[in-house]
Amino acid sequence: MQKKALYIARLGQKQLPKMCQFIEFCRKNSLEFDIAGSGRDTAYLEKMKLEISRRYNISPDRFIGEIKTAQFLLQHASEYLFAAGVGQVIIESAMCGIPVFVLSDADLADATFVAPENYAVFRHRNFTIDRQPEILRTQDLSRVNEYASCREQILQDRDVRNVAARYVDFI
Q1: Model's pTM, two decimal places?
Q2: Do the beta carbons of residue 5 and residue 80 sit within 8 Å?
Q3: pLDDT in tens, 30-47
């Protein structure tokens, strides 16, 4: 079975561009995917699911609902090639040894995997993208196993490790 990608976010209008970037990246790389998350406005969420399902010709079953990120990833790690999102999702996924793909507020060209060479930049930007230098961007799926090493960088980074400990109880 081919592994899938996983997008994790609080779903709402603000996250719609990032979700579309994620879907486009998966399509470009012939990857199956799931979308996890929930939101406060359930009427909007249902409308968004239908809109996305129609726009990208995907099944609404791709939306798997709210998850507890670390717990879910530990139970389903073998199913996913990488997880995508921003902020806390990145830290939790990395701590589970799952490669992480950070999405941009701008466009897909700015999205990147957290890799050994760009970890320090992300660490100082709260694991979000704000038009980072191109040299630090990587969308190379052939290196995805290398990206899982970010867990070790977090464990060696006292400040980020302490933040991660609030969300992930197995540190």
Answers
A1: 0.83
A2: yes
A3: 999 999 988 888 888 889
Contacts by 135-142 with C-beta closer than 8 Å and gap 24+?
136/112, 137/109, 137/110, 137/111, 137/112, 138/112, 138/113, 139/25, 139/111, 139/112, 139/113, 140/113, 141/29, 141/81
- pLDDT of 95 strictly over 50: yes
Residue 34 bridge partners (DSSP)? 6
What pLDDT is recorded for position 8?
94
User: How many Cβ atoms from other residues are within 10 Å of residue 125's Cβ?
Assistant: 12
